[in-house]
Design brief:
Radius of gyration: 15 Å
CATH superfamily: Gcn5-related N-acetyltransferase (GNAT)
Structural class: alpha+beta
Shape: globular
Strand content: 15-25%
Order of helices and strands: EHHHEEHEHEHEE
Helix content: 25-40%
CATH class: Alpha Beta
Number of domains: 1
Strand order of the largest sheet: 1-2-3-4
CATH architecture: 3-Layer(aba) Sandwich
Length: 177
Amino acid sequence: MRLVRFDAITARAYRDYVSEWEASAEAMIPVSSRPLNLAFEDRLAQWRLAETDEAFTVGFVPNTVFFLADETGLLLGALSYRPRLNDRLRLNGGHLGFGIRPGHRRRGLGHWLLAHAVATLPCLDAPGFLVTCDEDNLASQRTIESCGGVLEDRFPFEAGWTRRYRLATSGPGPRRQ
C-alpha cells in the first residue's frame, strides 16, 4: 500500500473508486475527494488550485487530497490533508479527513491511512493534528483512537454531535494488513 497525491492517480482508477461509492449510496468521504460532476482533468485542476494559498481567497484553507492505493493502482481510500485550519475546521473537519471505499473496510486500511499521514505529513498548528468524526461513527472513533487519538471534547454540530480528537505527530506508525 502507498499514499499517493491526487495527481498520481489515473482517470480509470478514479472512475472505479467513485463508482463503488455511488453504488453504495453513501456520501463519499472525505468531501474533498468527490468528483463534483467534473471531468477528471478539471477535477485535477481544482485539486491543484486547492493546494495553494488561493484557497484563502474563497474562504477555504489549502488542502491536498491523497489516495491510498494498492500495488495494482486500485484506490482503496482517500485522505484530505489541511496543514492549517480556519475557525470552522477547528470545530468540525480538522487537519485530516479520511474514508475507505465501502467494499474494502474492516481490513485495517483506515488505521494504516491515518497512522501513515500522522507519521509523514507536517502539522503546522500546535498541538498536533485535530481529527473529528460524527458521534455515531464508531468505526472512525476506533480508528482514530487506535492511532493514538485523545478525545478533546464533543459538542452538537449541525444535525448531530461531533467528537474532536488530538493526535500527536509522533504516534504509532502504519501497520500492514
